[in-house]
Design goal:
- By secondary structure, the protein is α/β, with parallel strands linked by helices.
- The protein folds into four domains: about 180 residues, FAD/NAD(P)-binding domain (3-Layer(bba) Sandwich), CATH 3.50.50; about 50 residues, no CATH class; about 90 residues, Orthogonal Bundle (protoporphyrinogen ix oxidase, domain 3), CATH 1.10.3110; about 120 residues, Polyamine Oxidase, Chain A, domain 2, CATH 3.90.660.20.
- About 35% of the residues lie in helices and about 20% in strands.
- The protein contains 21 helices and 20 strands.
- The C terminus is likely disordered.
Amino acid sequence: MSEKKVVIIGAGPAGLTAAYELLKKSDIKPIVLEAEEFVGGISRTVEHNGNRMDIGGHRFFTKSDRVNQVWEELMPIQGAPSFDDKILGNVKEWNPNGPDPEVTDDVMLLRHRVSRIYFLRKFFDYPISMKPRTFINMGFGRTMKAGFGYIKSCVHKLPEDSLENFYINRFGKTLYRLFFEDYTTKVWGVSPKQLSASWGSQRVKGLSLRKAVKEAITAPFHKKQREVETSLINQFEYPKKGPGQLYTIMSEKVKEMGGQILFNQEVDKIERDENNNIKAVITKKGDRFECDEVFSTMPIKDLFTSLGKETVPEHEYEIATTLPYRDFITVGLLLNGLKIKNKTKLKTLNNIVPDNWIYVQERTVKMGRIQIFNNWSPYMVEDPEHKVWIGLEYFCNEGDEMWNATDKDFIDMAVKELVSMDIIESEDCVLDSVRVKVKKAYPAYFGSYDEFPLVQSYLNTIPNLYCIGRNGQHRYNNMDHSMLSALTAVDDYLEGKTDKSDVWNVNTEKSYHEGNDEKKKEK
């Protein structure tokens, strides 16, 4: 095996995990080709003037023992209680920017999860709860409509041929229109009527109003977080300096073990032999990498372009190269404070709201979500005791009006939206700002995606190619799913399996949704 030449395309969560696992389990020395100058993909941490941004928000929570083992190998967990006591000022003589013998650099922090919806200038729990405050905020009329709508959804199920019907079946039409329709349209740029229901099963899985109520009742009796529906967890792990810290550590391990990571090496062409095996990968720099096996995390749209139109069946090529994506913009703002106050029972530094992120349901703004980085980790903020560092998230298409706007114009627009929502007092609250754009952040589930099985079937005819990760499978995976697809692919490769179904089935199997790794092993 040491003579095998393995090329891995992409140094994001899936690509790095594949390299790391290969090096642990074999004497193969893989070459990782990364188009950018950094590792981690959209899971990287962006630093700006001493403050760190998590692009998209990445909770470290998994029901996979294997993924959890990888995380623990790279970054041990630091318990939350003593750490939170420090940031809340319950322990004296602590400097958040100075040395801390108890909270070392390369650790995962145990964080409390708070996510809420901002709608009608009020906060609603996410997922929707049955607390009195929810009904007070909604008002009597909306509450009655929501109740009858939910009852109707229980007795009359719609065919789940769209994401809209998927949500209505679980929450009723009124709650769907209040809390899901507009936000989902912001994310994808199309009505949920046009989106495949598979997105809901992919991301929301078993969540429903009934399950949310059941969870609220049974939560005190759960022994483990893994018994909780993924969308309902109330705590998660998080690297001290953001998700990119873990992937930086992983990349260093890969290099220490003999792997190579080459930056600014965007793939341009992929050559195949007479048996349809990939024999070489050529980058835009003109470098040629011969290979016996390829693990690809590059967008399938770009993968087919690299394979070449003349080498792929016309219909499959058309489907693949027109697959839809949503692009992403984050505006980072350093503030001297927030106008909205913490009215919860949760204690926070400077009494800011406790949310990790806030879903913006307001129809008058383009903003989709707000991250408060202080609450992910105070180490993301240079001065967490006096400043608030937030990220405003927007969903767009590469080349559209938002994407092409200048940084100044876009940031000015974002700040004005924040003021209009009563989140901050005025533009004068902003001390520093930055804009970050990310291409192909979200593989979309509409348009030519309906015929994606044909693309998948064609890719399976290339014997020495494994497609892994979010863009590699055109699947809206979480980090753990992307990493598990890589671990599964490495297992199959080292065992000599030719059937790729195990890799494609990650995050589709019911047993995985339930975190039942042991039952999978028994099979």
